[in-house]
Amino acid sequence: MKIAALAWVVVVASLSVVLVFQLRRGVTMQTDMTALIPMEDRDFAISRAKERVAEILTERVFLLVGADDRARARGAGAQLAKTLADSGLTRSVTYRVSSDSLKSLVKMYFPYRFGLLADIDRERLQNDQGAQIVNRAIAIVYGPSSIVDANMLRHDPFLLMPEFLNHLPMPSLGLTPDDGVLSTREASLTWVLLVVQVRGDVYSGAFQKRFISALDAAIRQASAETPGLQVLRAGAIFYAYAGAESATREASRLGVVSLIGSIALILIVFRALRPLWLTLLAISIGVLCAFAASLTIFGGVHAVVLLFGIGLNGIAIDYCLQYIAARFGPNAGAPDDRLHQVLPGITIGAATTLIGYVTLMLAPFPGLLQLAIFSAVGLVGSFITIVLWLPFLDSPEPLARGTRILAMANSLWLFWEGARWRSLRWSVIVAIGIATMVGVGKLRIDDDIRHQQALAANLSAQELHLRRLTGVSGGTQFILVRSSNRDAALQTEEALRVRLSDAQRTGALQGFESLAQFVPSIARQRDNRELVTNKLMRPYLASYYQRLGMSGDVATGDAGYLTPDAIGNDSPIAFVRNLSLGSGAGGTTDLVLLMGVSQPKTIERSVSQIPGVTFVDPTADITRLLASYRRRAIILIAVSSLLMLPVLVLRYGLSDGIRVMLPPAIAVLAAPPLVALMGVSFTFFSAVALVLVLSIGFDYGVFCREAIPARRPVTMLGIWLAMVTTLSSFGLLAFSNTSAVHTFGSTLVVGTMLAFVFSPFASASHGTPE
Amino acid sequence: MTRSFFTVIAALAFTSAGFAQVAFGPAITATQNLHGRFRQERHLKGITATLTSSGTFVLAPGKGLIWRIEEPIQTITVITPAGIRQIVNGSEVQRIEASRAPVITHFYDMLNGALTGDWSAMHHDFAVKTTGDRRAWRTTLTPLRATDPIVGMLSSVVIVGGSMVDSVDITRANGDSERLTFLDQAISDVPLSVGDTLLLSNNEIIPTD
Q1: Which residues in chain A touch residue B96, judged by CB atoms under 8 angstroms apart?
Q2: What ipTM was predicted for this assembly?
Q3: Is 0.90 surpassed by the pTM of this model?
Q4: Which of A194, A324, A454, A466 has the most beta carbons within 10 angstroms of its beta carbon?
Q5: In the beta sheet, which residues pair with residue A482?
């Protein structure tokens, strides 16, 4: 025994060294949800595109600055823009688009003007309606608002270029450029828009904090100079920060309450702190082993796995407390004796739990595999620690003064046993039965990821206001275009554009952003030139020039074709460069961002007919992922119960083995409907809670079944303590504002309480309420 | 973008159409409108011919302007707070939403300002110098900032009038020039015709009058 304990010291020490070594090299905490998708379903180009889109969307911050007159709003906007640009935390701050920058755009396009046609002009030429273009040109030249001069008529006789520029997609519909600043008015307020691209790791909490503090300071400074200033903000970075903030605040608040609860419980029961740190030790060693194993096997730990893995690992408390409570027992004896008294129970309990966790591996889901290994290794680590170390670290003497506590602990057993509780027993069972039945009717499945995270209400309101004023519509959906080369990709986007414009007209979509809207493919440019030459210049130019009293030829020049490379970093349309994910020998990959998608299915159907095009809806994908994880988890719960049965049958025989399964079965089946009564939907997070509830139910059942009548009170005490600790550590999650955590917590609370209440059922002689 | 520059000239020309009422007489009320005939001669540097056009116009405060060219080609230009439309031979050849041509909004500020007696928008961009009296006056507008991308394209605007505006001479920085002459102007209390109301409502329907 001593040698084994020492050997375990060596193992734990070496694992610590491995862990420290790994941590020093830097641990990658995976947060990408796609890492949880089964391998065969994973498309790396799509994963990469999702990351890129998330980055583009997260980097972008919209600020709307409002004051009660134009000059003050613009003054504050300019000041804010300058402060942010000087902060070093931004890649770009777009506030006032200078006329120079607009001129640079015209300069970029001008040499290629005969290959650039507005869609409407292209259509006219294709339909032999060139005369309409000629009429328009004449109307403009003679019209009241003309600034056309001879130079322009020489270079672009039919004024095709201004029409092309006019039809370039606008960043927002609700705003109007006012002397270079996108502005709008609302009642007495003038609002001006700033678009900021942040520079830094948008996923890092430290960076988020730095940027938001800098922004808040800049706004305070601007408000000091412009009293009554209003600033609306929208951007993923604000939600991310607010989410992390509230999660941290919540976690620390719940954590403190839970810690105080556990300490108080142990102090009241044992009047000593030692049981507390023994418990913590067993669990920490488990987490340490789990962490080391995950890092070694997977090279990192996924955030979701860590979150739930530590939770699943927490079940070691059950075994720990069975051992610790044994000190109260009659004939408790020395630590080694006490261990031997509980060893069969905790071994079978741990074995069934292990089966439950390992079953998670059967699903071809990398997330569940990681979770299974993390929790299984953690459980084994904790279990070995309990068995090998706790007897050495524990106080040698039994606790004599526990009669009252033991009597209290035993009351549950008496409740199921005593003749005087008969009618109350039945009422409890009937009440739970009816509530469960009503709950089944209310049970709703909800996999939508958007319902799982709490968005800060204040931010949502600001964003809504901003969207209403600007007409900017959000969205995370996009289209991935994969082609053999740059021009083929642009041609695909041109084909897409036709379908997306149709979708826009029917209201399935509010807008889109693609490279080809700004730079037509060379094939298109060539075709446009031919149309201009054959359908416009040739039939109409001579008479048109004659009418205007001009002679000579059009100055065409030969500039070749415009390509996306021409868009410089300081171009007003530099943002479209983001839409190219890469172009080279391996082909070209582009993004088309979609805004305000209201009918994703329609769009998917319409665009997926074009070769090389994939419609991607990251939110829907995560929702689908959660749904399939939820389904798998439920199947695995059923499978693992079946796999646990042989262990029980082997020890207790068939009918008694099945009887031991009663408490976990009741808990797992009744918890979801009962929680549904509180309006909680069934999600993947409920399923994970049920995995834990199943194991807890088996533990309680096994402990009761193993207890000889004399040891029943002390066994019940261990179960009581385990139940209260579980409730105080996980049950508090039910108070979380984050829906996923709330669901997990409340399912666990109800499940654990059911498992506890019905645990005496597992014992053959006293289980059923006769 | 480029197109938006077009509109400023309209702004200048037609703010001056309402000049007389502002500088020397009562402004047009919201229920009234100003209508008349015009003749425009445009000289583009490098083109020997003079581009001459003539037709009628209707200006309704708060609603917009309809500029009907009859010669040399039938063209209707409608400028409203919602945007600008051009109609040739009964079919719309161009439509620019105000959101794409910000100067339209600016134009509206100036036009409505001029009609209602608020000159601040004009003074923001131009040095305004007026000589003469209410029967015969002459106002010269000079851009305050030659570097301004819009008003900087002008070198001067000279408006001559009496009870109404008689002529507007615009000289541009690039040497082009134009002269607008107004005839048969009248302020009318008669509501706009159905056709004109339709045009100003920015409707898709193009009246065939």
Answers
A1: 166
A2: 0.82
A3: no
A4: A324
A5: A589
